[in-house]
């Protein structure tokens, strides 16, 4: 089974490594340039001002592309497994892929339209990226359970579902708190709300 896609196992690892590097590098440049406070800034704040904005945008767009490739590989893997087991409808797999691709488009929007330059487009991109991401990993968790025990262990399924639940829980306060912000601004002065 795994021999049908030789050489693609590095793609998810590259996605995680590249994305982590994108956040860490833009954070370090933003802190060293004095553009953000070092204590837990928004990810988007670390990619708002030059020079880190260019690096952030470039690297996150590459991450979005790697995300598309990773999701497509996962789609193909499930299709191949499903040929012999018929554990999930093909339409569910396609729907999951489409939701994941929407999330990657949202990432590309976030990377291209900086937080302070075009805040409404940036925020819509973030909502699409995070919302689609939560739905995608939840659908993938469900597909994993349906493929047990032939293609997955229950341990892996439980881990995936735990990540899905944590993501869903984290998404709710993100929406609530983001809706409370009336103005996007990095630098605050004493006395401002």
TrEMBL record:
CWH43-like N-terminal domain mapped to chain residues: 8-183
Annotated InterPro entries: CWH43_N, DRAM/TMEM150_Autophagy_Mod
Annotated localization: Endomembrane system
Entry keyword set: Membrane, Transmembrane, Transmembrane helix
Keyword Transmembrane among UniProt keywords: yes
Transmembrane segments: 7-33, 53-73, 94-112, 124-143, 155-178
Domain of life: Eukaryota
A GO BP annotation: regulation of autophagy
GO CC, alphabetical: endomembrane system; lysosome
Membrane topology summary: Multi-pass membrane protein
Annotated family: Belongs to the DRAM/TMEM150 family.
Protein name: DNA damage-regulated autophagy modulator protein 1
Originating species: Spheniscus mendiculus
Gene name of the encoded protein: Dram1
